[in-house]
């Protein structure tokens, strides 16, 4: 929800160099789902002194990893191969539409075939895509990632993916008894939820069209959007006749929509003007302008880096040495579910200058993960501001919970005055002087939060002198102190991230069964969030939460 340039520099004027800035900046992103934050940061990189960015991406499903690879490949297509307007339209369709045009489907198929060819060959992958690194992934994860690209590269005859039918099934499950009044429900969610929270540029026509057809950005004629967007497919374990089988379907967002990411804010304030109380531009037009500006800035930064390469060679660099100016970033994809164990690796201890956590991965924020952030580093957490299923009290409770988890992880909140924001920002507490004077290695520093008190490590005096009749030493396990229990509720995940129990396969008549089980999702919530926020269908107790009052919302909203 929303996008921004990650805060990679110390506070101050953008063009003012800071003596303490490192030559490389390491950024860890948890659950970013797509690459919009990476692209925004790279687009604004020329505002700061030249440095190299290392993005470490950690997701909970391989479909999100594949989508990020595809989006990054699209963003850095050379201008002679794909123009700016075509690239912007392709990005919006691939990123936010359930149905795409024929040329966009062909692009997805071509890139998927390319990645399927490069994944088994690490040398070819490093030569053609030097900005991507898949070395940290496990071999079985690479095989599953190759299976994802294989499905994307298949035609409808080879592997059917009826997204229109799956979308309608998902919408019926979400609305329940309100399905027949879905037009009024969409107006109620838009005017009484999204508009009240700041997204007033989203109009009823485009929001209702997305709820009905899954097409958010209709840049061309409506009849051109016919083929399914296979990048929105995901795998899930379901119960079928007492057995757990892998099922491919759509379990993404059907409530909020992709408009809040690029369509409600802009650097050009003329796009946000209103006349007679109504916005002059809709969210689709603002999204197209923002994406075009983003790709234009990326192209300008790339040309500037290309011009800096001959200067680096003249100063002593060798041709083809690949200086930082010609390739100023690299994206590293980490293994699935590696967040709880990152602090066990010494090269990740106090390494990251910035940690980004999405609202669906807040439960991963812990003192162990905070130990991977360098002293003085920054933490950015995505809030649940635009989740229409949450009420005001629930939003406040979620923000308070984020603050508690951040403080327990060693961060302090940055002062903020004004209306609620989409992101919560924190900074890492500086390391005490007493700790700096003591020699510490990587694992001890990262596990400092879980270390038992020193008194517990000293056995009583009577245990140091064994009795005379004892001929064998006591087992080592008797002298090991018990680890202190975790703080109550510290790692309790929010309600939105709890994995729903397996459902009966008969209820999902539109899902496609994968007999080979190639898309078995990892532990945790295997449902990807195509737009950065995904929610399970509300329960019976929430059925009345979004119900419009008698008479319909049209009579209450001007």
From TrEMBL:
<dbReference type="GO" id="GO:0030324">
    <property type="term" value="P:lung development"/>
</dbReference>
<dbReference type="InterPro" id="IPR028235">
    <property type="entry name" value="DNAAF3_C"/>
</dbReference>
<feature type="region of interest" description="Disordered">
    <location>
        <begin position="412"/>
        <end position="558"/>
    </location>
</feature>
<protein>
    <recommendedName>
        <fullName>Dynein axonemal assembly factor 3</fullName>
    </recommendedName>
</protein>
<comment type="similarity">
    <text>Belongs to the DNAAF3 family.</text>
</comment>
<dbReference type="GO" id="GO:0007283">
    <property type="term" value="P:spermatogenesis"/>
</dbReference>
<dbReference type="InterPro" id="IPR027974">
    <property type="entry name" value="DUF4470"/>
</dbReference>
<feature type="compositionally biased region" description="Pro residues">
    <location>
        <begin position="520"/>
        <end position="529"/>
    </location>
</feature>
<dbReference type="GO" id="GO:0072520">
    <property type="term" value="P:seminiferous tubule development"/>
</dbReference>
<feature type="region of interest" description="Disordered">
    <location>
        <begin position="306"/>
        <end position="326"/>
    </location>
</feature>
<dbReference type="GO" id="GO:0044458">
    <property type="term" value="P:motile cilium assembly"/>
</dbReference>
<dbReference type="Pfam" id="PF14740">
    <property type="entry name" value="DUF4471"/>
</dbReference>
<dbReference type="GO" id="GO:0090660">
    <property type="term" value="P:cerebrospinal fluid circulation"/>
</dbReference>
<dbReference type="GO" id="GO:0070286">
    <property type="term" value="P:axonemal dynein complex assembly"/>
</dbReference>
<feature type="domain" description="Dynein assembly factor 3 C-terminal">
    <location>
        <begin position="132"/>
        <end position="412"/>
    </location>
</feature>
<dbReference type="GO" id="GO:0000902">
    <property type="term" value="P:cell morphogenesis"/>
</dbReference>
<keyword id="KW-0970">Cilium biogenesis/degradation</keyword>
<feature type="domain" description="DUF4470">
    <location>
        <begin position="22"/>
        <end position="98"/>
    </location>
</feature>
<feature type="region of interest" description="Disordered">
    <location>
        <begin position="1"/>
        <end position="22"/>
    </location>
</feature>
<dbReference type="GO" id="GO:0007420">
    <property type="term" value="P:brain development"/>
</dbReference>
<dbReference type="InterPro" id="IPR039304">
    <property type="entry name" value="DNAAF3"/>
</dbReference>
<comment type="function">
    <text>Required for the assembly of axonemal inner and outer dynein arms. Involved in preassembly of dyneins into complexes before their transport into cilia.</text>
</comment>
<feature type="compositionally biased region" description="Low complexity">
    <location>
        <begin position="459"/>
        <end position="476"/>
    </location>
</feature>
<dbReference type="GO" id="GO:0035264">
    <property type="term" value="P:multicellular organism growth"/>
</dbReference>
<dbReference type="GO" id="GO:0008340">
    <property type="term" value="P:determination of adult lifespan"/>
</dbReference>
<dbReference type="Pfam" id="PF14737">
    <property type="entry name" value="DUF4470"/>
</dbReference>
<dbReference type="GO" id="GO:0007368">
    <property type="term" value="P:determination of left/right symmetry"/>
</dbReference>
<dbReference type="GO" id="GO:0120293">
    <property type="term" value="C:dynein axonemal particle"/>
</dbReference>
<keyword id="KW-0963">Cytoplasm</keyword>
<dbReference type="GO" id="GO:0005576">
    <property type="term" value="C:extracellular region"/>
</dbReference>
<dbReference type="GO" id="GO:0007507">
    <property type="term" value="P:heart development"/>
</dbReference>
């Amino acid at each position: 929800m929303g996008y921004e340039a990650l805060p990679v520099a110390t506070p101050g004027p953008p063009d003012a160099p800071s003596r303490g800035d490192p030559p490389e900046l390491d950024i860890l992103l948890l659950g970013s789902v797509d690459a919009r934050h990476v692209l925004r940061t790279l687009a604004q990189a020329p505002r700061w002194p030249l440095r190299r960015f290392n993005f470490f991406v950690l997701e909970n499903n391989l479909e999100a990893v594949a989508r990020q690879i595809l989006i990054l490949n699209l963003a850095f297509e050379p201008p002679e191969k794909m123009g700016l307007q075509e690239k912007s339209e392709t990005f919006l369709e691939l990123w936010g539409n359930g149905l795409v045009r024929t040329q966009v489907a062909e692009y997805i198929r071509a890139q998927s075939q390319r990645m399927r060819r490069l994944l088994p060959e690490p040398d070819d992958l490093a030569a053609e895509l030097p900005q991507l690194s898949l070395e940290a992934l496990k071999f079985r994860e690479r095989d599953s990632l190759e299976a994802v690209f294989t499905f994307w590269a298949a035609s409808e005859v080879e592997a059917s993916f009826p997204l229109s039918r799956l979308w309608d099934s998902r919408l019926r499950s979400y609305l329940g008894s309100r399905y027949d009044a879905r037009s009024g429900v969409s107006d109620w969610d838009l005017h009484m939820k999204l508009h009240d929270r700041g997204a007033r540029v989203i109009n009823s026509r485009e929001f209702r069209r997305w709820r009905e057809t899954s097409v958010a950005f209709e840049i061309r004629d409506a009849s051109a959007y016919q083929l399914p967007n296979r990048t929105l497919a995901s795998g899930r374990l379901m119960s079928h006749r007492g057995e757990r089988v892998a099922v491919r379907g759509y379990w993404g967002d059907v409530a909020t929509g992709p408009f809040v990411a690029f369509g409600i804010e802009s650097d050009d304030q003329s796009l946000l003007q209103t006349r007679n109380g109504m916005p002059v531009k809709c969210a689709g037009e603002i999204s197209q302008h923002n994406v075009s500006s983003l790709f234009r800035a990326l192209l300008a930064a790339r040309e500037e880096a290309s011009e800096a390469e001959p200067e680096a060679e003249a100063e002593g660099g060798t041709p083809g040495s690949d200086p930082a100016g010609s390739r100023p970033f690299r994206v590293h994809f980490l293994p699935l579910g590696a967040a709880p164990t990152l602090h066990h690796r010494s090269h990740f201890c106090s390494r990251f200058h910035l940690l980004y956590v999405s609202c669906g991965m807040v439960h991963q924020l812990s003192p162990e993960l905070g130990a991977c952030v360098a002293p003085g580093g920054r933490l950015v957490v995505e809030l649940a501001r635009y989740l229409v299923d949450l009420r005001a009290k629930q939003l406040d409770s979620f923000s308070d919970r984020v603050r508690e988890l951040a403080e327990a992880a060693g961060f302090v909140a940055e002062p903020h005055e004004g209306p609620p924001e989409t992101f919560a920002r924190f900074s890492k507490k500086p390391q005490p002087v007493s700790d700096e004077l003591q020699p510490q290695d990587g694992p001890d520093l990262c596990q400092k939060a879980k270390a038992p008190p020193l008194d517990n490590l000293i056995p009583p005096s009577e245990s140091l002198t064994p009795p005379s009749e004892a001929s064998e030493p006591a087992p080592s396990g008797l002298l090991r102190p018990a680890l202190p229990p975790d703080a109550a509720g510290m790692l309790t995940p929010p309600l939105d991230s709890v994995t729903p129990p397996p459902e009966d396969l008969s209820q999902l008549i539109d899902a496609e069964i994968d007999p080979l089980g190639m898309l078995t999702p990892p532990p945790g919530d295997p449902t990807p969030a195509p737009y950065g926020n995904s929610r399970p269908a509300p329960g019976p107790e929430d059925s009345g939460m979004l119900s419009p009052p008698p008479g319909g919302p049209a009579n209450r909203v001007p």
